[in-house]
Amino acid sequence: MYGAAQLTQSPAVIAALPRWLQIGAPFTNTAMTYLLVVAASLAVRELSLGGLRVLVQVAAAAGLAIAIAGVAAFVVTGSPHALMLYNNLLAASVLLVLAVVVAAPRLSARYLAFQHGGVLVAGMLVFALEALYNSLSRPLGFTPARLLDHLGFAVLLSSFGYVALQLAVANERRLLAVEDELAIASKIQMAILPGGAPRVQHLRISAAYRPMTAVAGDFYDFIPVDEHRVGILVADVAGHGVPAALIASMIKVAIQSVTACAEDPAAVLSGVNRVLSAHPSSPLISAAYLWLDTERRAARYSAAGHPPLLCWRQGQLERIESNGFLFGMIPDADYPVRTMTIDPGDRFLLYTDGVIEAENSRGEFFGDARLADVVRDNLRRPPAEFADALLSEITRWRPAGVPQQDDITFVVIDVEKSAAAGEG
């Protein structure tokens, strides 16, 4: 606004403008001259605290009233200076208060919110003194040198530029430190996930884990009991990033406390829920647990507010739901258990909602129907290849260049006739 006001006073600039803009230049110059006090007051307000902030707000309101009246007077009388005396007195009052506050270290510490204060204080003090001299000179009949006005403003802008540069450098250093910490956190989180699928006779297992950011709120784990029995847990913490990742790491600890009852999904989920509910600030968590016993050809399933278990058997795709409350809602929640038989050729899929909620360019979800199509189209592929195919379909669904919108985790389990080694 200061620069624009200076330009509207330049004959060379005015002459270069179209005719209709030349006509409006005096009105624009008058409005900006009056409104400079308002703009400057609002700028100082952002650096002020306590009583000074209130005082500056009042000054801005008063300046706006004077500006409206001054522009109206110019339109009616043609005089751009009808209320300029009051405008200059208001500016001088604000500048005098600001100069006193800036010059007194104790007042600055109390009423100003400065970073790298030395340079900014010096710049504001020079500008305030020059602007105060300029505001008082005209009412007293003096014409101050315009060069002083420009130099004072240049000093202020230079001090702002210095502070902005210091903040940019500090923010860059902070960002690098955060990235280093996130890299370490990512390595730690990967370390608490299973290093590979367990070896269970007549089962082939593969897991996929794709965090949205460096760390994720998704989690999965295996509870292998022997060569015939295994429990599989998939969980999804509400939210993303470091807070969700910390809660996900707590699930790992909670799992260790329920390994003795791995064959009972209700007991597993209830035990994990009790551990997590002991922390009132923890977010809500969905989870699903599948117990498989190949010796008895039996499976048990239970979930806590989680997407359904998909099961392909005998040419049909079943969605198996057996949900209780999300973790963290009720400490003593009950979790219903669904008991099933398993046969060679069955395929199970446990997954988090990041799989079905991937969005395309129109905001449409990948959805249950497309997930079912991927399962049907890749029945002959082993679990590891199926996992790659599903990830490829989700990536293809997402617009090119658009980052992943949620953590993606799923576990694929095939039941086979002969013993098979687990897959990573």
Structure summarized in a few sentences:
This protein has 424 residues and is an alpha+beta fold. It is built from 12 helices and 11 strands.
Descriptive account of the structure:
The protein has 424 residues and is an alpha+beta fold. The protein has 2 domains: 2-172, no CATH class; 194-415, PPM-type phosphatase domain (Phosphatase 2c, domain 1), CATH 3.60.40.10. Helices cover 51% and strands 16% of the residues. It is built from 12 helices and 11 strands. It has helices at residues 2-7, 11-16, 19-45, 50-77, 84-103, 105-111, 117-137, 146-192, 241-256, 265-277, 367-377, 383-397, and strands at 203-210, 218-224, 229-237, 285-293, 298-304, 309-313, 316-320, 323-324, 338-341, 347-351, 408-415.
Which radius of gyration do the C-alpha atoms yield?
34 Å
Global shape: elongated
CATH class placement of the largest domain: Alpha Beta
Q: How large a portion of the residues is in β-strands, by DSSP E? A: 15-25%
CATH fold label of the largest domain: Phosphatase 2c, domain 1
